[in-house]
Amino acid sequence: MLLQGAFGGNVWITGPAIWPFSGDGGILADIKGNYWTPDNLNAKYPRISYANNANNYQTSSFWLLNTNYLRLKNVEIGYTLPQSLVKRAKLGNVRAFVNGINLVTWDHLKIFDPEMPNDSRNYPQQRVINAGITIGL
Question: Cystine design at 101: which of 11, 53, 71, 128 (Cβ 3.0–4.6 Å)?
């Protein structure tokens, strides 16, 4: 098992790739429907406006986020068949296994990969599960 993490960091969420108020930026799914309007007073995010308004770019600690995370990077479980069974089949050894990569991440960001939150190519780490049998003659 391999755990990977980082603690004690913060990131200022900014930049055209992720800033929800920039003129040509996209809207993250986390922001869509979760921003302030007169009908949505308990929203997580402030108002959204694509207008070129200086208020859209005011610095605020609201956009300073904790980057602490812990990721279960790799786990493998395997079982080697007993020699008494393997010898009957005239094999040297047989091992079955299942492994997983990037199975779960515990973090505060939630909307970005905590390893690179301000990267415009911020795609989530792929979760991979493999299974197989190793047969030795």
Answer: 128
Instruction: Please give the full DSSP string across 22-56, using - where no structure is assigned.
Output: STTPPPPTTTTT-B-BTTBTT-SB-----S--GGG
Confidence of residue 27 (pLDDT cuts 50, 70, 90): low
C-beta separation of 105 from 65 below 8 A: no
Q: What percent of the chain has pLDDT over 90?
A: 35
Tokens representing residue 4 in the block: 């990977």
pLDDT digits (tens, 9 = 90+) for 106-115: 998 777 788 8
pLDDT at 17: 46
Query: Which tokens hold the place of 95?
Result: 């091992």
